[in-house]
Amino acid sequence: MAYAVWNRGVRASWVLRERAHAQDFDVDLRAGQAVADSAFEGDTGRLDVTIRSRGRTVGPARASGKIGGNAVAIAAGRVTRAGHTEHRAFPPLRRGPIMASDWRFETSDPLGLFRSTVRGKDVEQALVLPRFTSLHAQPVVRELEASVVAPRAGGGTEIFGVREYRPGDPLRRIHWRSTARRGELIVREFEPPGVQNLGIFLDPNPASVEVADQIARLAASEAWDCLRAGGRVRLWAPGSEPTRPDVERNFLALLEWLARYPKRAPQDEPPPLVGDAIAVTAGSDARLLEAVEDVRLHGGVVRAWVVGEATLESDIDAERVGLGWPL
Protein backbone atom coordinates (compact mmCIF):
# COMPACT_ATOMS: atom_id res chain seq x y z
CA MET A 1 0.00 0.00 0.00
CA ALA A 2 2.82 2.40 0.86
CA TYR A 3 4.41 1.71 -2.54
CA ALA A 4 1.13 2.35 -4.37
CA VAL A 5 0.84 5.75 -2.64
CA TRP A 6 4.49 6.56 -3.30
CA ASN A 7 4.34 6.33 -7.12
CA ARG A 8 0.74 7.41 -7.60
CA GLY A 9 0.32 9.94 -10.39
CA VAL A 10 3.47 9.08 -12.36
CA ARG A 11 2.85 9.19 -16.12
CA ALA A 12 4.82 8.70 -19.33
CA SER A 13 4.12 10.43 -22.66
CA TRP A 14 5.71 10.77 -26.06
CA VAL A 15 5.36 13.29 -28.86
CA LEU A 16 6.67 12.97 -32.41
CA ARG A 17 7.58 16.40 -33.76
CA GLU A 18 8.03 16.50 -37.54
CA ARG A 19 10.57 18.77 -39.15
CA ALA A 20 9.61 19.01 -42.80
CA HIS A 21 12.29 19.22 -45.43
CA ALA A 22 11.79 20.97 -48.78
CA GLN A 23 8.77 19.57 -50.60
CA ASP A 24 8.39 19.36 -54.37
CA PHE A 25 5.02 21.10 -54.40
CA ASP A 26 3.61 24.51 -53.56
CA VAL A 27 0.61 24.59 -51.26
CA ASP A 28 -1.57 27.69 -51.26
CA LEU A 29 -1.80 28.39 -47.53
CA ARG A 30 -5.27 29.86 -47.86
CA ALA A 31 -6.28 26.72 -49.69
CA GLY A 32 -4.98 24.10 -47.30
CA GLN A 33 -3.14 25.11 -44.15
CA ALA A 34 -3.83 21.65 -42.73
CA VAL A 35 -2.00 20.11 -45.68
CA ALA A 36 0.96 22.44 -45.26
CA ASP A 37 1.21 21.50 -41.57
CA SER A 38 1.01 17.74 -42.13
CA ALA A 39 3.81 15.18 -42.06
CA PHE A 40 4.94 13.81 -45.42
CA GLU A 41 7.10 10.85 -46.30
CA GLY A 42 10.78 11.76 -46.24
CA ASP A 43 10.34 14.34 -43.46
CA THR A 44 12.69 14.04 -40.52
CA GLY A 45 11.43 14.04 -36.95
CA ARG A 46 12.31 14.27 -33.30
CA LEU A 47 10.73 12.10 -30.65
CA ASP A 48 10.24 13.66 -27.21
CA VAL A 49 9.65 11.11 -24.44
CA THR A 50 8.67 12.44 -21.00
CA ILE A 51 8.16 10.93 -17.54
CA ARG A 52 6.26 13.34 -15.26
CA SER A 53 4.70 13.31 -11.80
CA ARG A 54 1.38 15.03 -11.24
CA GLY A 55 2.34 15.83 -7.65
CA ARG A 56 5.47 15.56 -5.52
CA THR A 57 8.82 14.12 -6.53
CA VAL A 58 8.72 10.30 -6.79
CA GLY A 59 10.50 7.52 -8.65
CA PRO A 60 12.40 5.73 -9.98
CA ALA A 61 10.50 5.00 -13.23
CA ARG A 62 11.21 3.65 -16.70
CA ALA A 63 9.22 3.66 -19.96
CA SER A 64 10.05 1.61 -23.05
CA GLY A 65 8.40 0.63 -26.30
CA LYS A 66 8.42 1.19 -30.04
CA ILE A 67 7.45 4.15 -32.20
CA GLY A 68 7.10 3.23 -35.84
CA GLY A 69 9.10 0.07 -35.20
CA ASN A 70 11.97 1.98 -33.58
CA ALA A 71 12.84 0.93 -30.01
CA VAL A 72 12.71 3.76 -27.44
CA ALA A 73 13.45 3.73 -23.69
CA ILE A 74 13.69 6.40 -20.99
CA ALA A 75 14.47 6.10 -17.27
CA ALA A 76 14.79 8.49 -14.33
CA GLY A 77 15.71 7.98 -10.69
CA ARG A 78 13.70 11.04 -9.63
CA VAL A 79 10.48 12.08 -11.32
CA THR A 80 9.22 15.62 -10.69
CA ARG A 81 6.18 17.60 -11.77
CA ALA A 82 8.35 19.37 -14.36
CA GLY A 83 9.19 15.94 -15.73
CA HIS A 84 12.21 14.32 -17.24
CA THR A 85 12.38 14.51 -21.05
CA GLU A 86 14.75 12.86 -23.48
CA HIS A 87 14.96 13.56 -27.21
CA ARG A 88 15.54 11.00 -29.93
CA ALA A 89 16.36 11.69 -33.56
CA PHE A 90 13.82 9.96 -35.78
CA PRO A 91 14.71 8.49 -39.19
CA PRO A 92 13.02 9.84 -42.35
CA LEU A 93 9.31 9.10 -42.14
CA ARG A 94 7.66 6.43 -44.26
CA ARG A 95 4.16 6.79 -45.69
CA GLY A 96 1.41 5.38 -43.51
CA PRO A 97 0.45 5.20 -39.83
CA ILE A 98 3.17 5.46 -37.19
CA MET A 99 2.19 3.21 -34.31
CA ALA A 100 3.23 3.39 -30.67
CA SER A 101 3.37 -0.26 -29.64
CA ASP A 102 4.68 -2.64 -26.97
CA TRP A 103 4.86 0.16 -24.38
CA ARG A 104 5.69 -0.74 -20.78
CA PHE A 105 5.78 1.66 -17.85
CA GLU A 106 7.76 0.39 -14.84
CA THR A 107 7.97 2.00 -11.41
CA SER A 108 9.64 1.10 -8.14
CA ASP A 109 10.03 2.33 -4.59
CA PRO A 110 13.33 4.10 -3.67
CA LEU A 111 14.81 0.93 -2.17
CA GLY A 112 13.89 -1.27 -5.09
CA LEU A 113 11.84 -3.61 -2.95
CA PHE A 114 8.61 -3.32 -4.94
CA ARG A 115 8.06 -3.11 -8.67
CA SER A 116 5.05 -2.52 -10.86
CA THR A 117 4.68 -2.81 -14.63
CA VAL A 118 1.81 -1.32 -16.66
CA ARG A 119 1.42 -2.16 -20.34
CA GLY A 120 0.05 0.51 -22.66
CA LYS A 121 -2.34 0.06 -25.55
CA ASP A 122 -1.07 0.24 -29.12
CA VAL A 123 -2.10 3.61 -30.54
CA GLU A 124 -1.57 5.54 -33.77
CA GLN A 125 0.94 8.29 -33.09
CA ALA A 126 0.92 10.00 -36.49
CA LEU A 127 -0.15 9.54 -40.10
CA VAL A 128 2.48 10.22 -42.77
CA LEU A 129 1.07 11.39 -46.10
CA PRO A 130 2.42 10.56 -49.57
CA ARG A 131 4.40 13.19 -51.44
CA PHE A 132 2.90 14.71 -54.56
CA THR A 133 3.63 17.13 -57.34
CA SER A 134 1.98 18.43 -60.49
CA LEU A 135 2.22 15.90 -63.30
CA HIS A 136 1.20 18.44 -65.92
CA ALA A 137 3.78 20.63 -67.61
CA GLN A 138 1.37 23.58 -67.62
CA PRO A 139 -1.55 22.76 -65.33
CA VAL A 140 -4.65 24.88 -65.19
CA VAL A 141 -4.17 26.61 -61.84
CA ARG A 142 -7.12 27.53 -59.67
CA GLU A 143 -7.37 28.12 -55.95
CA LEU A 144 -7.80 24.87 -54.04
CA GLU A 145 -10.24 24.92 -51.14
CA ALA A 146 -10.32 22.12 -48.58
CA SER A 147 -14.10 22.01 -48.76
CA VAL A 148 -16.48 23.74 -51.17
CA VAL A 149 -20.14 23.54 -51.93
CA ALA A 150 -20.73 21.04 -54.72
CA PRO A 151 -22.51 22.35 -57.83
CA ARG A 152 -26.08 21.28 -58.33
CA ALA A 153 -26.80 18.45 -60.73
CA GLY A 154 -27.29 19.62 -64.28
CA GLY A 155 -27.39 18.42 -67.84
CA GLY A 156 -23.70 18.21 -68.62
CA THR A 157 -21.68 15.17 -69.58
CA GLU A 158 -19.91 14.30 -66.30
CA ILE A 159 -21.67 11.96 -63.87
CA PHE A 160 -22.72 13.78 -60.70
CA GLY A 161 -24.18 10.72 -58.96
CA VAL A 162 -27.17 8.39 -59.02
CA ARG A 163 -30.68 8.53 -57.59
CA GLU A 164 -34.02 6.72 -57.77
CA TYR A 165 -35.97 6.92 -61.02
CA ARG A 166 -38.67 9.59 -61.18
CA PRO A 167 -41.52 9.74 -63.72
CA GLY A 168 -40.35 11.66 -66.76
CA ASP A 169 -36.65 10.75 -66.46
CA PRO A 170 -35.15 9.78 -69.86
CA LEU A 171 -34.66 6.03 -70.14
CA ARG A 172 -31.15 6.58 -71.51
CA ARG A 173 -30.10 7.79 -68.04
CA ILE A 174 -30.87 4.47 -66.34
CA HIS A 175 -27.78 2.97 -64.74
CA TRP A 176 -28.39 -0.71 -65.29
CA ARG A 177 -25.67 -2.04 -62.99
CA SER A 178 -27.02 -0.09 -59.99
CA THR A 179 -30.58 -1.00 -60.99
CA ALA A 180 -29.73 -4.71 -60.94
CA ARG A 181 -27.91 -4.42 -57.62
CA ARG A 182 -30.66 -2.48 -55.82
CA GLY A 183 -33.70 -4.05 -57.45
CA GLU A 184 -35.22 -0.71 -58.48
CA LEU A 185 -34.69 1.73 -61.32
CA ILE A 186 -31.65 3.98 -60.74
CA VAL A 187 -30.73 6.88 -63.03
CA ARG A 188 -27.60 8.98 -63.46
CA GLU A 189 -27.39 12.67 -62.70
CA PHE A 190 -24.82 14.82 -64.44
CA GLU A 191 -22.56 17.72 -63.55
CA PRO A 192 -22.82 21.06 -65.33
CA PRO A 193 -20.48 21.11 -68.37
CA GLY A 194 -16.80 21.66 -67.67
CA VAL A 195 -16.58 20.14 -64.18
CA GLN A 196 -14.45 16.99 -64.19
CA ASN A 197 -15.56 14.10 -62.00
CA LEU A 198 -12.44 11.94 -61.87
CA GLY A 199 -12.03 8.45 -60.49
CA ILE A 200 -8.51 7.30 -59.60
CA PHE A 201 -8.48 3.51 -59.36
CA LEU A 202 -5.50 1.86 -57.66
CA ASP A 203 -3.83 -1.55 -57.83
CA PRO A 204 -5.30 -3.73 -55.04
CA ASN A 205 -2.16 -5.85 -54.59
CA PRO A 206 1.08 -3.85 -54.98
CA ALA A 207 4.06 -6.22 -54.95
CA SER A 208 6.05 -4.26 -52.36
CA VAL A 209 5.91 -1.27 -50.02
CA GLU A 210 8.03 0.69 -52.52
CA VAL A 211 5.56 0.00 -55.33
CA ALA A 212 2.62 0.96 -53.10
CA ASP A 213 4.39 4.21 -52.17
CA GLN A 214 4.90 5.13 -55.83
CA ILE A 215 1.27 4.32 -56.67
CA ALA A 216 0.12 6.54 -53.80
CA ARG A 217 2.36 9.41 -54.99
CA LEU A 218 1.02 9.22 -58.54
CA ALA A 219 -2.58 9.09 -57.34
CA ALA A 220 -2.02 12.04 -55.00
CA SER A 221 -0.46 14.05 -57.82
CA GLU A 222 -3.33 13.33 -60.21
CA ALA A 223 -5.81 14.31 -57.50
CA TRP A 224 -3.86 17.53 -56.86
CA ASP A 225 -3.97 18.52 -60.54
CA CYS A 226 -7.69 17.73 -60.84
CA LEU A 227 -8.66 19.72 -57.75
CA ARG A 228 -6.53 22.69 -58.81
CA ALA A 229 -8.51 22.74 -62.06
CA GLY A 230 -11.79 22.82 -60.12
CA GLY A 231 -12.69 19.15 -60.46
CA ARG A 232 -13.78 16.40 -58.08
CA VAL A 233 -11.93 13.19 -57.19
CA ARG A 234 -12.96 9.75 -55.93
CA LEU A 235 -10.36 7.15 -54.92
CA TRP A 236 -10.95 3.39 -55.03
CA ALA A 237 -9.13 0.08 -55.20
CA PRO A 238 -10.71 -3.37 -55.61
CA GLY A 239 -11.31 -4.76 -52.13
CA SER A 240 -11.08 -1.31 -50.53
CA GLU A 241 -13.73 1.18 -49.51
CA PRO A 242 -13.88 4.17 -51.88
CA THR A 243 -13.55 7.70 -50.58
CA ARG A 244 -16.84 9.27 -49.58
CA PRO A 245 -18.65 11.69 -51.91
CA ASP A 246 -18.48 14.46 -49.28
CA VAL A 247 -14.65 14.56 -49.42
CA GLU A 248 -14.21 14.57 -53.18
CA ARG A 249 -12.92 18.17 -53.01
CA ASN A 250 -11.06 17.75 -49.70
CA PHE A 251 -7.43 17.17 -50.62
CA LEU A 252 -6.29 16.40 -47.09
CA ALA A 253 -8.92 13.65 -46.74
CA LEU A 254 -7.80 12.16 -50.07
CA LEU A 255 -4.17 12.18 -48.90
CA GLU A 256 -5.14 10.44 -45.67
CA TRP A 257 -6.89 7.68 -47.66
CA LEU A 258 -3.74 7.28 -49.76
CA ALA A 259 -1.56 7.23 -46.63
CA ARG A 260 -3.39 4.06 -45.54
CA TYR A 261 -3.45 2.45 -48.99
CA PRO A 262 -3.81 -0.49 -49.48
CA LYS A 263 -6.42 -0.94 -46.76
CA ARG A 264 -8.90 -3.79 -47.03
CA ALA A 265 -12.61 -3.16 -46.48
CA PRO A 266 -14.82 -5.59 -44.54
CA GLN A 267 -16.73 -6.23 -47.76
CA ASP A 268 -15.99 -5.67 -51.42
CA GLU A 269 -17.19 -2.23 -52.50
CA PRO A 270 -18.09 -1.39 -56.12
CA PRO A 271 -16.20 1.39 -57.89
CA PRO A 272 -17.73 4.87 -57.64
CA LEU A 273 -19.63 6.32 -60.57
CA VAL A 274 -17.37 8.86 -62.26
CA GLY A 275 -17.03 10.66 -65.57
CA ASP A 276 -13.34 9.94 -66.29
CA ALA A 277 -10.91 7.45 -64.81
CA ILE A 278 -7.19 6.93 -64.28
CA ALA A 279 -5.76 3.55 -63.33
CA VAL A 280 -2.56 3.56 -61.26
CA THR A 281 -1.24 0.03 -61.17
CA ALA A 282 1.71 -2.33 -61.30
CA GLY A 283 -0.28 -5.22 -62.79
CA SER A 284 -3.44 -6.20 -64.63
CA ASP A 285 -6.03 -6.84 -61.95
CA ALA A 286 -9.23 -7.86 -63.73
CA ARG A 287 -11.53 -5.89 -61.39
CA LEU A 288 -9.46 -2.75 -61.81
CA LEU A 289 -9.43 -2.94 -65.60
CA GLU A 290 -13.13 -3.76 -65.70
CA ALA A 291 -13.93 -0.63 -63.69
CA VAL A 292 -11.85 1.54 -66.04
CA GLU A 293 -13.40 -0.07 -69.10
CA ASP A 294 -16.90 0.57 -67.73
CA VAL A 295 -16.09 4.30 -67.52
CA ARG A 296 -14.86 4.26 -71.12
CA LEU A 297 -18.00 2.44 -72.32
CA HIS A 298 -20.08 5.26 -70.86
CA GLY A 299 -18.11 7.92 -72.75
CA GLY A 300 -15.46 8.80 -70.21
CA VAL A 301 -11.80 9.54 -70.91
CA VAL A 302 -9.51 6.89 -69.43
CA ARG A 303 -5.75 6.37 -69.14
CA ALA A 304 -3.26 4.61 -66.88
CA TRP A 305 0.03 4.84 -65.01
CA VAL A 306 1.99 1.59 -64.88
CA VAL A 307 4.69 1.22 -62.21
CA GLY A 308 7.38 -1.20 -63.32
CA GLU A 309 7.58 -3.58 -66.27
CA ALA A 310 4.33 -5.54 -65.91
CA THR A 311 2.24 -5.99 -69.06
CA LEU A 312 -1.04 -4.09 -68.93
CA GLU A 313 -3.70 -6.32 -70.47
CA SER A 314 -5.68 -3.42 -71.87
CA ASP A 315 -5.49 -1.06 -74.84
CA ILE A 316 -6.00 2.11 -72.80
CA ASP A 317 -3.30 4.76 -73.09
CA ALA A 318 -0.64 4.15 -70.44
CA GLU A 319 2.55 5.80 -69.24
CA ARG A 320 5.17 3.63 -67.59
CA VAL A 321 7.36 4.78 -64.66
CA GLY A 322 9.85 3.32 -62.23
CA LEU A 323 10.21 3.82 -58.49
CA GLY A 324 12.19 7.07 -58.60
CA TRP A 325 10.63 10.30 -57.31
CA PRO A 326 10.21 12.94 -58.55
CA LEU A 327 9.58 11.52 -62.01
Can you describe what's shown?
The protein has 327 residues and is α/β, with parallel strands linked by helices. Helices cover 19% and strands 33% of the residues. It has six helices and 15 strands. It has helices at 2-6, 29-36, 176-182, 209-228, 251-259, 286-297, and strands spanning 10-19, 44-53, 61-67, 70-76, 84-90, 96-108, 115-119, 123-128, 154-164, 186-190, 197-202, 232-236, 276-281, 302-307, 318-321. The strands form four sheets. Strands 3, 4, 6, 7 and 8 form a five-stranded antiparallel β-sheet that branches. Strands 12-11-13-14-15 form a five-stranded parallel β-sheet, sandwiched between helices. A three-stranded antiparallel β-sheet has the order 1-2-5, with no helix packed on it. Strand 11, helix 4 and strand 12 form a beta-alpha-beta unit. Helix 4 packs antiparallel against helix 5. The protein is elongated, with a radius of gyration of 25 Å. It starts with a helix and ends in a 6-residue tail after the last strand. The relative contact order is 0.13. The model is unreliable at 1-7, 20-33 and 138-157 (pLDDT under 50).
Keywords:
5-stranded antiparallel beta sheet; alpha/beta; elongated; 6 helices; 327 residues; single chain; 5-stranded parallel beta sheet
Produce a short descriptive summary.
Helices cover 19% and strands 33% of the residues.
What is the overall pLDDT average? Answer: 80
Uncertain parts: 1-7, 20-33, 138-157
Coarse shape: elongated
The helix content, as a percent range, equals: 10-25%
Largest beta sheet, briefly?
Answer: 5 strands, antiparallel
Structural class: alpha/beta
The rounded distance between the terminal residues' Cα atoms is: 64 Å
**Radius of gyration (Å):** 25 Å
